[in-house]
Amino acid sequence: MVSRCLGFGVCRWNGEVLDCRLVDELKNEVDFIPVCPECEIGLGRPRPPILLVQKNSALTLMQPATGLDLTSMMVTFAEKFLQSLPQVDGFFLKCKSPSCGLAGIPIYDTLDAESPLNKNGAGFFAQAVHRFFPDTPKVDEECSDKESFLELFK
Fold it and tell me: How far is CA 93 from CA 6, 57, 99, 103, 115, in A?
């Protein structure tokens, strides 16, 4: 499974296309299953950014520009999608994404993107990937070379 924005389609929040050299190198050797969780829950392209926001003791997925709480929609989509996947050898996800980032995603205490807490976490879709596939390899596009990538998925 791969984040669709990594060379499979225009789906990023800002409408940009990302070229991913590693995906290009692997397309003939790997059967990728591309998905963009943000598009799948109905967010358009381009769209206002989303953030991880700590509300009381709960982590939420919010879109500050609209005030939308996307938590329930993302959790529902992620669970249904991941349960429907065929056997997968691994996950290749978009780093720094509040939906797909594996780690290091800033957590905020308000919808003000200028004031992150001194906490980081995983994106909401990535959290579900960790839950449903705890022992399956997971990397992001910062994995720098084909050999290292393929070694992880042996």
Answer: 8, 27, 10, 11, 26
- Residue 94 belongs to domain spanning: 2-48+70-103+120-152
CB-based burial of residue 127 (10 Å sphere; 0-12 exposed, 13-18 middle, 19+ buried)?
A: buried
How many domains does the structure of the chain reveal? Answer: 1
Please give the Cα distance from 55 to 43 (Å, whole number): 22
Q: What are the start-end ranges of the H helices in 106-152?
A: 124-132, 146-152
115 in any annotated domain: no
Give the model confidence (pLDDT) of 83-99 as tens digits.
999 999 999 999 999 99
pTM score: 0.90
CA separation, residue 57 to residues 60, 61, 90, 102, 127 (Å): 10, 13, 31, 21, 16
3-state DSSP assignment of residue 39: helix
Q: What is the pLDDT of residues 93-116, one digit of tens each?
A: 999 999 999 999 999 988 877 777
